[in-house]
Amino acid sequence: MTTAELNSHTLASRLEQFIMPAEMEPLDVNSTARDVEDYLERFDIWCLTKSDMDDKKFTAYFLHFVGKEAYTLIKNLVYPESPIDISYNELKKKVLQHFKPINFVAAERARFNMLTRSHSHSVRDFVLQLQTQAAKCDYGAQLEDQMRDRLIAGIQLPELQQKLLLCPDQKFQTIRKMCEQYEDVKHVTKTEEAVLLNYSKRNDSRMQTHNKFKPRTNSRAPNPSIRHFTNRNSNSMGNDLRPATGIVLSSTGKRMVTILDLDDLSCHRRHIDQVEFNTK
Questions:
Q1: Mean pLDDT on 230-250
Q2: 250 in helix, strand or coil?
Q3: Which of 54, 58, 147, 254 lies in disulfide reach of 88, CB 3.0 to 4.6 Å?
Q4: In what order do the strands lie in the sheet with 272-276?
Q5: DSSP secondary-structure letter at 241?
Q6: Of 274, 279, 255, nearest to 264 (Cα)?
Q7: What is the pTM of this model?
Q8: In this structure, are residues 272 and 244 in contact, taking their beta carbons and an 8 Å threshold?
Q9: The dihedral of CA 141, 90, 19, 65: what is its sign?
Q10: Which long-range contacts link 36-45 to residues 24+ away (Cβ below 8 Å)?
């Protein structure tokens, strides 16, 4: 290494000592155990981005980032020792023991086995709920099998459950993917049905508007079996001289027929008339 390179490296090391590292937010002393775990994991990740980190620096950075309230808490937890004299790993263990209650595995597994998806939650929300609870159950090598079984049992979609049980690949990731695809297809289909329904309603509205201003026509086709007659025989069968409308039953002569009088049918009077007629 040349003298110039050595001087440059020494200068960079000295500058790193004086430059304040990128800040993390203070640790909230009212956080849940899960939030504290996340905070410590993020601090570990941040430390990986720094070079030349030793135990003393780990402790110093950690006590700096956690803030005043959390520092006071840590100081009480390690009393009578001073926090700066304790390794970061020991401080981390003390903090977790304070925030994280004793985990009764049997109770957590019972909660896991009672999880079911409510109809207001998506499949992805249910999978996230399963993963969150499974982290407390210490399933070890059985984790994926337990996740798969609970996902199938608690999905609350009978049609999908049948497909999942028949699936030859029973890996958790495969079952999870099938559930998510099923939900996506249902969502797309429902959206398309809504679009088609709105389109149909618009078309119906246009047709109603068009027909509203369209002149009405008598679309009833004439019935060839119904004929109109003028009764000219007032003495035959007691018929009157009014016009008759009826269906021809028989013909007794050139101008005499027997008809089923539709006018009489409408008022429940004599049904069959014999008339002399002129056709219209």
A1: 49
A2: strand
A3: 58
A4: 226-230, 243-251, 256-261, 272-276
A5: S
A6: 274
A7: 0.48
A8: no
A9: positive
A10: 36/95, 36/96, 36/99, 36/100, 37/96, 37/100, 40/92, 40/95, 40/96
Query: What value, to the nearest 5°, has the Cα angle with vertex 41 and ends 82 and 151?
Result: 140
CA distances from 120 to 16, 125, 154, 157 (A): 52, 10, 14, 13
**Contact residues for 163 (Cβ-Cβ < 8 A; gap 6+):** 178, 182
- Residue whose entry in the numeric block shows the structure tokens 């890996």: 171
Written as six digits, the tokens of 38 are 């996340």
Tokens of 69: 């309230």
For residue 12 the two structure tokens come to 């960079």
The residue assigned the tokens 């440059």 is 8
The Cα–Cα gap between 264 and 238 comes to 13
Angle between helices 158-166 and 143-154 (to 10 degrees): 140
With cut-offs at 50, 70 and 90, classify the pLDDT of residue 198. Answer: low
Per the CB < 8 A criterion, the answer to whether 267 and 250 are in contact is no
Distance CA 273, CA 276 (A): 10
For the ranges 59-63, 124-128, 132-136, 263-267, the lowest mean pLDDT is seen at 263-267
